[in-house]
Amino acid sequence: MPLSREPRLHPVAITELRPTQITVGMREVEAKRRSWKDHPDYKKGDFLGKHMIPVIWGHDGRYYVIDHHHLTLALHKEGVKHIAVTVISDLRGLDEESFWFNLDNRGWMHPFDAKGQRRGYKDVPKKITQLVDDPFRSLAGELRRTGGFAKDTTPFSEFLWADFLRRRIKPKQVQTNFDKALEKALKLAKSEDANYLPGWCGAIA
Q: φ, ψ for residue 12 (rounded to 5)?
């Protein structure tokens, strides 16, 4: 049966968590690693207590992460072994196909690869450590941090911005001159072409 947010007070191994997306922005992962390192050791426990990972309890008894993939991967890379989770819904009673269908149609997964192409459910990695880099997701994350668009509650909003940017900026530029790509992204973000996107902040006067 569906649950309200239910904290799981016992720690869950990060290596046992299952992702619900294919990509992350590795620059954003690295930024979160730096932020974690900047936390004094005595504050790290409080940080983890305030950043429980939202998950779906899956058909196979495993926990499926539906947000904070970047943070989870960053913590793993920093040597954190376990993390607390919050169960959003219990779907253990569903078969595998019904489970993924429900995640998809309730906005709890993002099965798109690093080229922005939709893939099948079986292409979603089975481990957090198998997430792959999408440079345009990194660009979208940096764009938000520099004020290109506002934080929004729309699921996977940064991926929507990544797709917008992917169609207008060449991949080579993102890979070889990220600062120049960000400069172009900032101009694009203020244009009317982007007015349908979550967090759009309006055109340049």
A: -115, 135
CA–CA separation, 74 and 79 (whole Å):
9
Contacts of 74 (CB under 8 A, 6+ apart): 29, 30, 32, 33, 36
Look-up of token digits 């080229």: 115
Helices (H), 24-170: 26-38, 41-50, 69-77, 96-105, 135-145, 157-166
What whole-number distance in Å separates Cα of residue 148 and Cα of residue 130?
29
Considering the entire predicted model, what is its pTM? 0.89
189 near 200, Cβ under 8 Å? yes
Which two structure tokens, joined as six digits, stand for 136? 């345009």
Tokens of 82: 């376990």
Of the candidates 75, 85, 61, 80, the residue with the CA atom closest to the CA atom of residue 32: 75
Domains of the chain: 6-133 (3.90.1530.10), 135-194 (1.10.8.10)
Tokens of 143: 């764009």
- Interval 140-181: pLDDT, tens: 999 999 999 999 888 899 999 999 999 999 999 999 999 999
Report d(CA 197, CA 182) in Å as an integer.
17
